[in-house]
TrEMBL record:
It is an enzyme of class 4 (lyase). Pathway: Amino-acid biosynthesis; L-threonine biosynthesis; L-threonine from L-aspartate: step 1/5; Amino-acid biosynthesis; L-lysine biosynthesis via DAP pathway; (S)-tetrahydrodipicolinate from L-aspartate: step 1/4; Amino-acid biosynthesis; L-methionine biosynthesis via de novo pathway; L-homoserine from L-aspartate: step 1/3. This is Diaminopimelate decarboxylase. Residues 332-405 form the ACT domain. SUPFAM superfamilies: ACT-like, Alanine racemase C-terminal domain-like, Carbamate kinase-like, PLP-binding barrel. The keyword Nucleotide-binding applies.
């Protein structure tokens, strides 16, 4: 179909089409908004405005019941009449004058002789009443508000296409498509309408044989698109109750981003695979006629919304992920007729015979697997059983239900595969039944069991952002997160290093790379924990950062210290004079015997995590008190490499062997006074520790001698603006709840990262700025030897040019170090000031935990220096 040439109304600047759905037309203040927007568009652009409306919310459902012959149809009609009368009264209009004739027509449909047999033309007329009523009362109201608003019957303008051969009678009347190209006479008639502003109905059109035809699902969006295409409109705006299309369903992924601008093909794919905000049918008419579309929020018209147009920025990358439930997979194995001409046709003929439309297809030498989308099919058990019986004649049939289809949508999927390794690893835990990549390179779909899909989308969404596969830094395309728009975001406090910038620049002058730690921040985190955590003792896991000043500050705040090696034990006693050994935990893993020996000799609390140690060194443990570390069989954490629970983890005694340990300990007179678990680091799920406490309490009761439960560390911090700050209150509340259930035990935590990550920055000088094949890189005098987290865990750290903190960061750089390893990269495609130059002082944020502590002299590069800031700069 050739695009319609945009036809400009000569007296004005063409047409703009605004569509409002049910919730947008059911309240008076919403009609005020409609009026304001129509007037504003006309004034701003000089265009004439066509408003397309749905029925008041809920009305079409009632009309559907009446059209279906509900036994209480008379009552339903009465209810609808009353609903509209009430609303007209609320609008301050004369009910009889405005709606009298329309309501009489509605009542009249029940008295119509056709009501007895309910032919499809009568049903269409019934269904169309809602829009006729809402548009009529809306036009009348807006006129009383002083608008030059005309009313027109959509059936005078939208013509249903002649019936297709394979169309059912039902869809020929109740799910029609319309003509969307207009001749000069049509334009002349339309433009001749006297008012600048016009209102009409969505959902209805003229049937080729006369009377009403219905557009079917998504009807009003599609009506607006048809009008937009027919008029060659400047724009079609779909006004709804969400701020636009998002990179995922915001109810499932609160971090989903607003998609500010999309091409038609991407938008089509996103709507087809799940987004409900726009009906997929409505895109083609606008696409074919080059009419831009926008999705906007009626309650918040100031938000940018989503624009769909031909010239949308062509940024490759994943734009959205979606999930469809209830998908059925049908797999046919051992197909006897493989490679015979027409064998696939034979298979698909059977799907056709049962009226099933196939969504995705995967074939191999001996297998054909197809997916059936429930939204396109009537998937009753009977239909599936009948299909299976027929398919059995061809091969072995397996029906897999219920499945979920997880789809990644975006341009250039094929060139992204190398960035999707984390995504594939997210699926690694699930059974993937089928992977399908569309030939238009817009869509990659994984089919998994529906139960496995729960909770997967937020994880996938995060992984796509972290890997760079979803390019959220592209401001043209990606807008704010849903939870920001929803007002659920606490603004991130300005980090301490903004205030300390002059001092940091001075410190950098003394030599870089250099870590700087801000003790007031350490104390603030310690106090925040003390204020809420319902625990009896807090220890600091010194492996995160063992700088003596930090250890002393935390001991002064009442924290004990948790150590994992003899080296750490010696270090704490050397750093904190007079430290009481009862305030020290020793939690080694696979340590040599003498470390346990020294631990007991120093008088610290020793934790054991295996039976073999007791058996091998009975004399070491005889008569001692120990804590026992248990692997509760599940783990968590910001990266697979910091997950310390479950079968793949080396830590902790298997829960299956607890009784064995207890027996071995008893035989030695060893008393288990504490139970310990630490199942991962950077855990975002606040319920994680509550579950641990509950599970440990169960073991403690069985053992009988236990008085303390240590639920480890693992509290996360927000490394990037995308991370939700940890909800300390929710965490504390869940601990308080579980404590109340197990009051007999003392509770202990041992966080590391939470206390120190945000107190530390790594300062470095830029050494070189280099362009290579279109990529700009800034090199630092610090590399992965100074901070290994990005190389090891793909960890995110914010990076700024401290020298040019006030300049806009608008150029994209990869930030790299001097080490001879490809993984020596602190961040890819990060925004920095365009003037970033050698000699600038750069700052890597949130490096206080596992920064210097994990540094090395690899490549014979020196360890970074360390400095402490102890009082606030004021
Ligand atoms: N307790 C035990 C027994 C631990 O093994 C750890 C950390 C902690 C407590 C403290 O965990 P935190 O609160 O800091 O999450 N290098 C990794 C983190 C490894 C954590 C090792 N164990 C990173 O940079 O993310």
């Amino acid at each position: 179909m050739s695009p319609a040439s945009p036809k400009q109304d000569s007296a004005t600047g063409g047409w703009i089409v605004l569509k409002f759905g049910g919730t947008s037309v059911s309240r008076r203040h919403r009609w005020d908004t409609i009026g304001r927007l129509a007037k504003k568009r006309a004034e701003e652009t000089g265009a004439r405005v066509l408003v397309v409306v749905s029925a008041l919310s809920g009305v079409t459902n009632e009309l559907t019941a009446i059209a279906d012959g509900a036994s209480d149809s008379a009552q339903r009609v009465q209810g609808l009449v009353q609903r509209h009368l009430d609303f007209v009264a609320e609008l301050g209009l004369d009910a009889e004058a405005v709606l009298g004739a329309r309501l009489a027509a509605l009542r009249g449909l029940l008295d119509d002789p056709r009501a007895a047999t309910r032919p499809l033309d009568w049903q269409a007329e019934v269904l169309g009443q809602g829009e006729l009523l809402s548009s009529t009362l809306g036009a009348a109201y807006l006129r009383t508000q002083g608008l030059d608003m005309g009313w027109t019957d959509a059936r005078d303008w939208l013509d249903a296409l002649p019936p297709q051969a394979n169309q059912s009678d039902w869809s020929r009347r109740l799910s029609v498509s319309c003509q969307w190209q207009a001749d000069a006479a049509w334009h002349a008639r339309f433009d001749a309408q006297p008012t600048r502003l016009l209102i009409t109905q969505g959902f209805i059109a003229r049937h080729p044989e006369g009377g009403t035809a219905i557009l079917g699902r998504g009807g009003s969006d599609t009506s607006a698109a048809y009008f937009g295409a027919l008029l060659g409109a400047n724009r079609v705006e779909i006004w709804t109750d969400v701020p636009g299309m998002f990179s995922a369903n915001p109810r499932e992924v609160p971090d989903a981003r607003l998609l500010k601008r999309l091409g038609y093909a991407e938008a089509q794919e996103i709507t087809t695979t799940g987004a409900k905000v726009l009906h997929p049918r409505s895109i083609k008419p606008c696409r074919d006629s080059g009419v831009p579309m926008a999705i906007l929020d009626t309650e918040r018209p100031e938000l940018p919304g989503t624009t769909i147009d031909r010239s949308a920025a062509t940024v490759p990358g994943v734009k959205a992920i979606s999930r469809r439930n209830g998908v059925v997979l049908v797999s046919v194995e051992d197909i006897g007729m493989w490679q015979q001409v027409g064998y696939l046709a034979e298979v698909f003929a059977l799907f056709r015979k049962h009226g099933l439309s196939v969504d995705m297809i995967g074939t191999s030498q001996t297998n054909v697997t197809v997916s059936l989308d429930p939204s396109e099919n009537l998937l009753s058990e009977n239909v599936l059983a009948a299909l299976a019986t027929d398919l059995e004649k061809i091969g072995r049939v397996k029906v897999i239900v219920p499945c979920a289809a997880i789809t990644l949508v975006g341009r250039g999927m094929r060139s992204l595969l190398h960035k999707l390794s984390e995504v594939f690893s997210s699926f690694g835990h699930e059974r993937v039944h089928m992977i399908s990549q569309s030939s238009n390179d817009l869509n990659l779909t994984f089919v998994i069991d529906e139960a496995d899909a729960d909770g997967l989308l937020p994880e996938l969404h995060g992984a796509l952002i972290d890997s760079g596969a979803m390019p959220v830094l592209e401001k043209e395309v990606f807008g704010p997160r849903w939870r920001e728009l929803d007002g659920a975001v606490r603004p991130r406090p300005v980090p301490w290093w903004h205030r300390e910038r002059p001092r940091l620049l001075q410190m950098a002058a003394a030599g870089t790379p250099r870590y700087v730690y801000h003790l007031p921040t350490v104390r603030a985190r310690a106090r925040a924990l003390k204020a809420v955590a319902p625990v009896d003792q807090r220890y600091y896991a010194i492996k995160a950062n063992s700088h003596p000043a930090i250890l002393r500050a935390l001991v002064d705040e009442g924290f004990g210290l948790e150590c994992v090696s003899l080296g750490e034990l010696r270090h704490v006693f050397a750093s904190v004079p007079g430290l009481d050994p009862r305030r020290v935990l020793f939690t080694p893993s696979f340590a040599p015997m003498h470390e346990y020996e020294q631990g007991f000799a120093l008088g610290v609390t020793v934790t054991v995590d295996n039976v073999e140690a007791l058996r091998r060194w009975p004399e070491l443990f005889r008569g001692r008190q120990v804590w026992l570390r248990i692997d509760l069989g599940h783990g968590d954490g910001h990266h697979q490499k910091v997950n310390t629970g479950g079968k793949d983890s080396k830590f902790g005694l298997s829960a299956q062997r607890v009784d064995e340990f207890v027996d071995a300990a008893r035989a030695l007179g060893t008393t288990i006074t504490g139970l310990h678990a630490h199942l991962g680091s950077g855990v975002e799920n606040a319920g994680h520790w509550r579950q641990m406490c509950d599970e440990l309490a169960g073991f403690a009761r069985r053992i009988g001698t236990v008085s303390t439960l240590d639920i480890g560390g693992g509290l996360p911090i927000p490394y990037s603006a995308d991370d939700e700050p940890f909800d300390l209150d929710a965490w504390a509340a869940s601990l308080a709840e579980v404590r109340a259930v197990h009051p007999a035990f003392g509770l202990v935590i041992e966080p590391g990262r939470y206390l120190v990550a945000e107190c530390g920055v790594l300062l470095a000088h830029a050494t070189q700025v280099i362009e290579k094949d279109g990529v700009l890189r800034v090199g630092l005098d610090a590399g992965m030897n100074a901070l290994v987290r990005p190389a090891l865990y793909d960890a995110w750290h914010d990076i700024v040019n401290l020298q040019r903190l006030d300049e806009a960061a608008e150029a994209m750089f990869d930030i790299v170090g001097p080490i001879c390893e490809s993984s020596d990269i602190f961040g890819r495609q990060r925004p920095l000031p365009a003037a970033t130059a050698p000699g600038d002082v750069m700052l890597i944020a949130d490096a206080g935990a596992y920064g210097h502590a994990m540094a090395s002299t690899y490549n014979q590069r020196e360890l970074p220096a360390e400095d402490v800031i102890d009082e606030s700069a004021g």
